Protein backbone atom coordinates (compact mmCIF):
# COMPACT_ATOMS: atom_id res chain seq x y z
CA UNK A 1 0.00 0.00 0.00
CA UNK A 2 2.80 2.44 0.93
CA UNK A 3 4.68 1.53 -2.25
CA UNK A 4 1.57 2.25 -4.35
CA UNK A 5 1.18 5.62 -2.63
CA UNK A 6 4.65 6.80 -3.60
CA UNK A 7 4.55 5.32 -7.11
CA UNK A 8 1.19 6.89 -7.93
CA UNK A 9 1.26 9.90 -10.24
CA UNK A 10 -0.06 12.79 -8.21
CA UNK A 11 -1.25 16.36 -8.72
CA UNK A 12 -0.04 18.96 -6.25
CA UNK A 13 -1.39 22.41 -5.55
CA UNK A 14 1.17 25.18 -5.81
CA UNK A 15 3.17 25.96 -2.70
CA UNK A 16 4.42 29.51 -1.97
CA UNK A 17 7.80 29.14 -3.67
CA UNK A 18 6.13 27.82 -6.82
CA UNK A 19 3.36 30.38 -7.08
CA UNK A 20 3.77 32.52 -10.16
CA UNK A 21 4.68 36.09 -9.39
CA UNK A 22 3.44 39.17 -11.25
CA UNK A 23 5.78 40.06 -14.10
CA UNK A 24 6.98 43.66 -14.34
CA UNK A 25 7.29 44.89 -17.91
CA UNK A 26 8.76 48.02 -19.53
CA UNK A 27 10.71 48.97 -16.40
CA UNK A 28 7.68 48.41 -14.18
CA UNK A 29 5.24 50.52 -16.21
CA UNK A 30 3.13 47.44 -16.96
CA UNK A 31 2.38 44.36 -14.86
CA UNK A 32 1.28 40.94 -16.09
CA UNK A 33 -1.24 39.19 -13.85
CA UNK A 34 0.07 35.70 -12.97
CA UNK A 35 -3.48 34.29 -12.92
CA UNK A 36 -5.24 35.50 -16.08
CA UNK A 37 -2.13 36.84 -17.91
CA UNK A 38 -3.76 40.25 -18.47
CA UNK A 39 -1.34 43.14 -18.89
CA UNK A 40 -2.28 46.17 -16.81
CA UNK A 41 -0.74 49.58 -16.18
CA UNK A 42 1.00 49.27 -12.80
CA UNK A 43 -0.39 52.64 -11.68
CA UNK A 44 -3.92 51.44 -12.46
CA UNK A 45 -3.26 48.22 -10.56
CA UNK A 46 -2.10 50.17 -7.51
CA UNK A 47 -5.29 52.26 -7.62
CA UNK A 48 -7.18 48.99 -7.18
CA UNK A 49 -5.04 47.89 -4.21
CA UNK A 50 -3.07 45.44 -6.38
CA UNK A 51 -6.19 43.45 -7.31
CA UNK A 52 -6.36 42.43 -10.98
CA UNK A 53 -9.22 44.32 -12.64
CA UNK A 54 -9.76 41.45 -15.10
CA UNK A 55 -9.97 38.41 -12.82
CA UNK A 56 -9.87 39.68 -9.23
CA UNK A 57 -6.58 37.95 -8.42
CA UNK A 58 -4.90 39.45 -5.35
CA UNK A 59 -1.31 40.36 -6.17
CA UNK A 60 1.26 40.98 -3.40
CA UNK A 61 1.23 44.35 -1.63
CA UNK A 62 4.14 45.98 0.15
CA UNK A 63 3.71 46.76 3.84
CA UNK A 64 3.38 50.50 3.22
CA UNK A 65 0.92 50.03 0.34
CA UNK A 66 -1.32 48.04 2.66
CA UNK A 67 -1.01 50.56 5.48
CA UNK A 68 -1.85 53.42 3.11
CA UNK A 69 -4.92 51.54 1.86
CA UNK A 70 -6.30 51.14 5.40
CA UNK A 71 -5.01 53.84 7.73
CA UNK A 72 -6.28 57.42 7.52
CA UNK A 73 -3.84 59.71 5.75
CA UNK A 74 -1.43 61.50 8.07
CA UNK A 75 -2.28 59.41 11.14
CA UNK A 76 0.20 56.54 10.85
CA UNK A 77 3.21 56.73 13.17
CA UNK A 78 5.74 53.93 12.75
CA UNK A 79 7.31 52.45 15.90
CA UNK A 80 10.42 50.40 16.70
CA UNK A 81 12.16 51.15 13.41
CA UNK A 82 15.57 50.60 15.01
CA UNK A 83 15.04 46.87 15.68
CA UNK A 84 17.01 44.83 13.15
CA UNK A 85 18.28 41.27 12.77
CA UNK A 86 21.72 40.10 13.76
CA UNK A 87 23.56 36.88 12.88
CA UNK A 88 23.62 34.91 16.16
CA UNK A 89 24.67 31.62 14.54
CA UNK A 90 27.22 33.05 12.08
CA UNK A 91 25.10 31.53 9.34
CA UNK A 92 26.88 31.62 5.95
CA UNK A 93 25.98 34.74 3.89
CA UNK A 94 23.07 35.64 6.21
CA UNK A 95 24.29 39.18 6.89
CA UNK A 96 24.85 39.80 3.19
CA UNK A 97 21.33 38.60 2.36
CA UNK A 98 19.84 40.82 5.05
CA UNK A 99 21.67 43.83 3.66
CA UNK A 100 20.57 42.98 0.12
CA UNK A 101 16.94 42.86 1.25
CA UNK A 102 17.30 46.16 3.12
CA UNK A 103 18.53 47.84 -0.04
CA UNK A 104 15.89 46.19 -2.23
CA UNK A 105 12.88 46.89 0.01
CA UNK A 106 14.01 50.00 1.94
CA UNK A 107 12.86 48.13 5.07
CA UNK A 108 14.90 47.18 8.13
CA UNK A 109 12.91 44.00 8.71
CA UNK A 110 10.05 41.86 7.41
CA UNK A 111 7.38 43.64 9.45
CA UNK A 112 6.28 47.26 9.81
CA UNK A 113 4.50 48.24 13.04
CA UNK A 114 2.86 51.45 14.15
CA UNK A 115 -0.19 53.38 15.33
CA UNK A 116 -2.91 55.06 13.33
CA UNK A 117 -6.64 55.46 12.75
CA UNK A 118 -9.00 53.33 10.69
CA UNK A 119 -12.30 55.13 10.06
CA UNK A 120 -11.96 57.07 13.30
CA UNK A 121 -10.79 54.10 15.37
CA UNK A 122 -7.34 54.28 17.01
CA UNK A 123 -5.40 51.07 16.38
CA UNK A 124 -1.97 49.52 16.64
CA UNK A 125 -1.16 47.69 13.42
CA UNK A 126 1.51 45.31 12.16
CA UNK A 127 2.02 44.39 8.50
CA UNK A 128 4.45 41.76 7.24
CA UNK A 129 6.22 42.23 3.91
CA UNK A 130 7.14 39.04 2.06
CA UNK A 131 9.79 40.80 -0.02
CA UNK A 132 12.10 40.75 3.02
CA UNK A 133 13.38 37.18 3.52
CA UNK A 134 9.97 35.87 2.38
CA UNK A 135 8.42 37.46 5.46
CA UNK A 136 10.16 34.92 7.66
CA UNK A 137 10.03 35.45 11.42
CA UNK A 138 13.37 35.89 13.14
CA UNK A 139 14.09 37.39 16.55
CA UNK A 140 13.71 40.97 15.27
CA UNK A 141 10.32 40.29 13.68
CA UNK A 142 9.10 38.56 16.84
CA UNK A 143 10.36 41.43 18.99
CA UNK A 144 8.67 44.09 16.84
CA UNK A 145 5.35 42.24 16.91
CA UNK A 146 5.60 41.69 20.68
CA UNK A 147 6.37 45.37 21.31
CA UNK A 148 3.45 46.38 19.08
CA UNK A 149 1.14 44.18 21.16
CA UNK A 150 2.57 45.75 24.33
CA UNK A 151 1.95 49.20 22.81
CA UNK A 152 -1.69 48.25 22.21
CA UNK A 153 -1.92 47.07 25.81
CA UNK A 154 -0.33 50.25 27.15
CA UNK A 155 -2.62 52.54 25.14
CA UNK A 156 -5.71 50.32 25.46
CA UNK A 157 -6.07 50.02 21.70
CA UNK A 158 -7.06 47.08 19.48
CA UNK A 159 -4.27 45.28 17.65
CA UNK A 160 -4.52 44.35 13.96
CA UNK A 161 -1.94 42.07 12.34
CA UNK A 162 -1.52 41.29 8.64
CA UNK A 163 0.57 38.15 8.14
CA UNK A 164 2.50 37.17 5.01
CA UNK A 165 5.24 34.71 5.80
CA UNK A 166 7.09 31.57 4.83
CA UNK A 167 7.47 30.70 8.54
CA UNK A 168 10.32 30.77 11.05
CA UNK A 169 13.72 32.03 9.86
CA UNK A 170 16.04 29.04 9.79
CA UNK A 171 19.20 31.17 9.88
CA UNK A 172 18.44 32.03 13.51
CA UNK A 173 17.62 28.52 14.68
CA UNK A 174 15.89 28.18 18.06
CA UNK A 175 15.96 31.96 18.56
CA UNK A 176 13.49 32.16 15.71
CA UNK A 177 11.28 29.38 17.09
CA UNK A 178 11.18 31.15 20.47
CA UNK A 179 9.27 34.01 18.83
CA UNK A 180 6.24 31.74 18.46
CA UNK A 181 5.93 31.48 22.24
CA UNK A 182 6.86 35.12 22.87
CA UNK A 183 4.26 36.60 20.53
CA UNK A 184 1.60 34.17 21.78
CA UNK A 185 2.32 35.07 25.42
CA UNK A 186 2.01 38.78 24.59
CA UNK A 187 -1.36 38.13 22.96
CA UNK A 188 -2.49 36.26 26.07
CA UNK A 189 -1.80 39.39 28.12
CA UNK A 190 -3.74 41.44 25.57
CA UNK A 191 -6.66 39.03 25.85
CA UNK A 192 -6.62 39.10 29.67
CA UNK A 193 -6.90 42.90 29.47
CA UNK A 194 -10.05 42.53 27.37
CA UNK A 195 -8.54 44.11 24.25
CA UNK A 196 -9.31 43.08 20.69
CA UNK A 197 -6.96 41.27 18.31
CA UNK A 198 -7.86 40.94 14.63
CA UNK A 199 -5.62 38.63 12.58
CA UNK A 200 -5.64 38.89 8.78
CA UNK A 201 -3.83 36.15 6.86
CA UNK A 202 -2.61 36.90 3.35
CA UNK A 203 -0.76 34.78 0.82
CA UNK A 204 1.18 32.93 2.11
CA UNK A 205 0.84 32.49 5.88
CA UNK A 206 2.72 29.33 6.71
CA UNK A 207 5.01 27.55 9.16
CA UNK A 208 5.66 28.98 12.60
CA UNK A 209 3.71 32.17 11.89
CA UNK A 210 0.51 30.26 11.08
CA UNK A 211 1.10 28.08 14.16
CA UNK A 212 1.42 31.02 16.54
CA UNK A 213 0.13 34.60 16.53
CA UNK A 214 -1.56 34.48 13.10
CA UNK A 215 -4.13 31.92 14.29
CA UNK A 216 -4.90 33.51 17.66
CA UNK A 217 -7.18 36.34 16.64
CA UNK A 218 -10.51 37.13 18.24
CA UNK A 219 -11.36 37.41 14.55
CA UNK A 220 -9.35 35.37 12.06
CA UNK A 221 -9.77 36.78 8.54
CA UNK A 222 -8.03 35.99 5.26
CA UNK A 223 -7.75 37.26 1.70
CA UNK A 224 -9.19 35.14 -1.14
CA UNK A 225 -7.09 32.13 -2.22
CA UNK A 226 -4.42 32.79 0.42
CA UNK A 227 -2.32 29.74 1.23
CA UNK A 228 -2.48 29.08 4.97
CA UNK A 229 -0.95 26.13 6.77
CA UNK A 230 1.90 24.74 8.83
CA UNK A 231 3.54 21.82 7.02
CA UNK A 232 3.74 21.56 3.23
CA UNK A 233 1.19 19.60 1.23
CA UNK A 234 3.67 16.92 0.14
CA UNK A 235 4.83 16.25 3.70
CA UNK A 236 1.25 15.86 4.93
CA UNK A 237 0.26 13.52 2.10
CA UNK A 238 3.32 11.36 2.60
CA UNK A 239 2.69 11.23 6.36
CA UNK A 240 -1.02 10.35 6.32
CA UNK A 241 -0.77 8.38 3.03
CA UNK A 242 -3.83 10.06 1.60
CA UNK A 243 -4.42 12.41 -1.29
CA UNK A 244 -5.60 15.83 -0.17
CA UNK A 245 -8.30 17.98 -1.87
CA UNK A 246 -7.22 20.37 -4.62
CA UNK A 247 -8.10 23.41 -2.53
CA UNK A 248 -6.38 22.15 0.63
CA UNK A 249 -4.80 24.92 2.77
CA UNK A 250 -6.53 27.71 0.86
CA UNK A 251 -8.46 30.38 2.74
CA UNK A 252 -11.72 29.02 1.32
CA UNK A 253 -10.92 25.50 2.53
CA UNK A 254 -10.16 26.76 6.04
CA UNK A 255 -13.36 28.80 6.12
CA UNK A 256 -15.40 25.75 5.09
CA UNK A 257 -13.83 23.75 7.93
CA UNK A 258 -14.35 26.36 10.63
CA UNK A 259 -10.77 27.64 10.93
CA UNK A 260 -11.54 31.17 9.69
CA UNK A 261 -14.28 33.63 10.47
CA UNK A 262 -14.42 35.21 7.03
CA UNK A 263 -12.65 35.49 3.67
CA UNK A 264 -12.53 39.19 2.85
CA UNK A 265 -11.65 40.61 -0.58
CA UNK A 266 -9.00 43.31 -0.26
CA UNK A 267 -11.25 46.14 -1.39
CA UNK A 268 -13.72 45.25 1.39
CA UNK A 269 -11.08 44.95 4.10
CA UNK A 270 -11.21 48.52 5.39
CA UNK A 271 -15.00 48.45 5.73
CA UNK A 272 -14.88 45.04 7.43
CA UNK A 273 -12.25 46.14 9.95
CA UNK A 274 -14.16 49.36 10.60
CA UNK A 275 -17.34 47.40 11.33
CA UNK A 276 -15.54 45.07 13.75
CA UNK A 277 -13.94 48.00 15.57
CA UNK A 278 -17.26 49.81 15.76
CA UNK A 279 -19.05 46.74 17.15
CA UNK A 280 -16.48 46.55 19.94
CA UNK A 281 -16.85 50.23 20.80
CA UNK A 282 -13.46 51.52 19.67
CA UNK A 283 -14.69 54.46 17.60
CA UNK A 284 -13.88 57.72 19.33
CA UNK A 285 -16.94 59.84 20.13
UniProtKB/TrEMBL annotation:
Entry binding sites for Zn(2+): 33, 36, 52, 55
Record flagged with keyword Zinc: yes
Stretches annotated zinc finger (C4-type): 33-55
InterPro entries, per the entry: AcCoA_carboxyl_beta, Acetyl_CoA_COase_Trfase_b_su, ClpP/crotonase-like_dom_sf, COA_CT_N, Znf-ACC
Catalytic activity field: N(6)-carboxybiotinyl-L-lysyl-[protein] + acetyl-CoA = N(6)-biotinyl-L-lysyl-[protein] + malonyl-CoA
The keyword Chaperone belongs to this UniProt entry's keyword annotation: no
E.C. number(s) listed in UniProt: 2.1.3.15
Keywords tagged on the record: ATP-binding, Cytoplasm, Fatty acid biosynthesis, Fatty acid metabolism, Lipid biosynthesis, Lipid metabolism, Metal-binding, Nucleotide-binding, Transferase, Zinc, Zinc-finger
Subcellular location(s) per record: Cytoplasm
One Pfam family recorded for the sequence: Zn_ribbon_ACC
Essential cofactor(s): Zn(2+)
HAMAP family in the cross-refs: AcetylCoA_CT_beta (MF_01395)
Family: Belongs to the AccD/PCCB family.
Subunit organization: Acetyl-CoA carboxylase is a heterohexamer composed of biotin carboxyl carrier protein (AccB), biotin carboxylase (AccC) and two subunits each of ACCase subunit alpha (AccA) and ACCase subunit beta (AccD).
Role summary: Component of the acetyl coenzyme A carboxylase (ACC) complex. Biotin carboxylase (BC) catalyzes the carboxylation of biotin on its carrier protein (BCCP) and then the CO(2) group is transferred by the transcarboxylase to acetyl-CoA to form malonyl-CoA.
Protein name as catalogued: Acetyl-coenzyme A carboxylase carboxyl transferase subunit beta
Organism: Alteribacillus bidgolensis
Amino acid sequence: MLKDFFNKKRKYAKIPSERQQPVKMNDGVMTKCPECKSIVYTKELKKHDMVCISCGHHLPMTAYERINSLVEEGTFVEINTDITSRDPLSFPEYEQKLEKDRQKTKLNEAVVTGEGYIEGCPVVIGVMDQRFRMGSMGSAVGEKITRAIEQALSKQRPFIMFSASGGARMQEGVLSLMQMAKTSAALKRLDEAGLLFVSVMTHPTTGGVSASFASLGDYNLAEPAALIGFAGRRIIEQTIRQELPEDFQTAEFLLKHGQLDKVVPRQEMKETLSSILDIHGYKEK
